[in-house]
Specification:
477 residues, alpha/beta, Leucine Aminopeptidase, subunit E, domain 1, Aminopeptidase, 2 domains, 9-stranded mixed sheet, 13 helices, binds ligand BES, binds manganese (II) ion, binds zinc ion
Length: 477
């Protein structure tokens, strides 16, 4: 759990305190003793930006964020500074701290709070010894500009991010497709989201050949999770549909992954978890937007009944697909979901998926690979949201000739192209199942970090949640 953030109307004596300021000039007069002022001034001259010191019964942390032209860089500096501060406070076993927004800068304070809270995240469920558990439980914010509503929305987003990270960090020994559906359902219902979980019989009736095909080698049944958040007077006349890849474990299937390629494949449902986390945040914050979430869920396993290379699947939209490689399974389950999305007549559909190693090789872990068709303006808005929350999107093209490689001699499509441009060809495959403004986000890179990456942490980052919520908030303004 992240520390709870609460608005406060003053500074309580004895509280641990963070003062966020542009420079020593803007620090409040009369707050510091002369030696403290000299100490802060000296450090500042040495270009130190985080200056903690002890006042016997509490800590004071002065944090300078120098003026920086690019607001996205400035906000990101605040988040990473927040992470460093939480690390310092937890190391000193602090349980509470208050942030004093000295310059009344809403965005900067919010970013610092976000970085602090996200940085505190830990996945300790399976640790017997919880000795290393963070102690920080509450962060107060004292600010002339941060409103109660801002704080409530931030807590909602942080809850959504936490939820997503927990699911992504869960191993397959706990998180079967059934458990994945159960976890999402119970949290979603509490947040006022309508949930329908389709089981295998229903998937057969719907002829979801992609999802059923991938599931054939499994000892666990597949599920199709449908979430719908429809507030009283939504600002969008037609729903936004979010689709998330929900492979709870990707062994590769009969084309079994080798070497270390299977190591983090418990995270192959990060797209689905992000869709659920974002919807939880939107519903908890009661944003007036109509959103539908679709999450096809199964593992990808080899076995006597598993699909093999050469098999042909009949998909939900009636198209036939020749399976070339059973490890290109994400696109098979997503294709059914994208085709199912048509019944909502969506304003826009966005999918999130840990889809290809190719995307990671192309742009690394610092960005999301984005593709779009017929959604140029929405894509620009999403890209801008990406810079704002620092879940940045790099656009790859979906030019038609990239689709050539998906031609099959015996079926309508095959599920694999050549060795090059794998992320784009996967996007082209998905696009064939859409008939509405469409954005595809390949999050294989930034969804999980082996080594700690500032406030994104070690393990699951929760990527996609803040991005989607920011984008959705943009639509209602
Ligand atoms: N889930 C993987 C993609 C992935 C790779 C996610 C690394 C996270 C980190 C996907 O299902 C997959 O196996 N992709 C293959 C496709 C290949 C068989 C065409 C890949 O990218 O290697
Ligand atoms: Mn795979
Ligand atoms: Zn996969």
């Amino acid at each position: 759990m992240h520390p709870r953030i609460i608005a406060q109307t003053g500074i309580t004596h004895g509280d641990n305190l963070i003062l966020l300021a542009e420079s020593p000039k803007t620090l409040p007069a009369g707050f510091f003793s002369d030696p403290e002022i000299r100490f802060i001034g000296d450090r500042h001259k040495q270009k130190v930006e985080m200056i903690p010191f002890n006042r016997l019964d509490h800590w004071v942390v002065v944090q300078f964020i120098p003026a920086e032209k690019d607001r996205n860089q400035r906000w990101e500096k605040c988040r990473t500074a927040g992470d460093k501060i939480q690390s310092f406070l937890n190391r000193h076993q602090a349980t509470r701290v208050a942030l004093f927004d000295v310059d009344s800068k809403n965005d900067e304070s919010m970013a610092l709070l976000e970085g602090m809270a996200m940085g505190c995240y830990q996945f300790l469920k399976y640790k017997t010894d919880k000795e290393d558990a963070n102690t920080l439980k509450e962060i107060g914010i004292f600010s002339g500009t941060v409103t109660k509503k801002n704080v409530a929305e931030l807590n909602a987003v942080l809850n959504g991010v936490d939820f997503t990270r927990n699911l992504v960090n869960e191993p397959n020994s706990y998180l079967t497709a059934a458990m994945f559906a159960k976890e999402i359902e119970s949290s979603a219902v509490k947040a006022g989201i309508a949930v329908e979980v389709l089981s295998k019989k229903k998937l057969e009736a719907l002829q979801m050949g992609g999802l059923l095909g991938v599931n054939k080698g499994s000892h666990e049944p597949p599920f199709f999770i449908i979430l719908e958040y429809k507030p009283g007077k939504p600002k969008n006349p037609k729903p936004i549909v979010l689709v998330g890849k929900g492979i709870v474990y990707d062994t590769g299937g009969m084309d079994l992954k080798t070497g270390s390629h299977m190591e983090n494949m418990k995270t192959d449902m990060a797209g689905g978890a992000a869709v659920a986390g974002a919807m939880l945040a939107v519903a908890t914050a009661k944003l007036p937007v109509h959103i539908v979430g679709l999450i096809p869920a199964t593992d990808n396993w080899p076995g006597p009944l598993a699909i093999v290379s050469g098999d042909i699947l009949k998909m939900h939209n009636g198209m036939t697909v020749e399976v070339i490689n059973t490890d290109a399974e994400g696109r098979l389950i997503l294709a059914d979901a994208l085709s199912y999305a048509k019944r909502y007549d969506p304003l826009l559909t966005i999918d999130l998926a840990t889809l290809t190693g190719s995307a990671v090789r192309a742009i690394g872990k610092r960005a999301i690979a984005g593709m779009q068709s017929d959604a140029g303006q929405a894509f620009e808005q999403l890209r801008a949201s990406g810079f704002d929350v620092y879940e940045r999107i790099v656009e790859l093209p979906l030019w038609d000739d990239y689709g050539e490689e998906l031609k099959s001699k015996i079926a309508d499509l095959k599920n694999l192209g050549g060795p090059e441009a794998g992320a784009i060809i996967a996007g082209k495959f998905l696009q064939k199942f859409t008939s509405y403004p469409y954005i595809h986000l390949d999050i294989a890179g930034p969804s999980f970090f082996d080594k700690r990456d500032s406030y994104r942490g070690q393990g699951a980052s929760g990527v996609g949640v803040r991005l989607l919520v920011k984008f959705i908030k943009g639509i209602i303004n």
